[in-house]
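Open question from group meeting: does this chain pack into something compact, or does most of it stay loose? Before anyone orders reagents, we agreed to write out a predicted structure and look at it together. Recording both the input and the output here so the notebook holds the full record.
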Amino acid sequence: MHYGEELILGGSLYRPFRFARPNRQSYRDYLYNQAIFSVMNVRMAGPVVRLKQNKGFILKQLAFWLKDRMEDVIFKRVSFVPASILDAMILGEKRNIPLLINNSMMKSGTVHILPRLYTKMPSVAL
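Structure tokens returned:
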């Protein structure tokens, strides 16, 4: 899936959970303030129908395209582990960093040079 694609997905629709830390806004309230009232848990094994492409904002599409190209250049020119660290530092993509490297950076106190990885719920916001 890419930015700007229109898709038909199957899944379970539900209201977001109302969990929160003390003195903090709940997840449900946060989504409500973003005009999101339901979330859908999409099963990966289910069918995905692609309707249309290029429906998004053209400048955002260009930004994602440039980011993909830069990521390709990094991984073609540098070996995997240093490339994954550069990818995280420059482009904010932490998904390629091996768990062992991430844990080592946490133990050594150098993980702060990487962008913070925000935990997301395994669902799609509508």
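Observations to bring back to the group:
Confidence is low (pLDDT under 50) at residues 118-126.
The CA atoms of residues 16 and 28 lie 5 Å apart.
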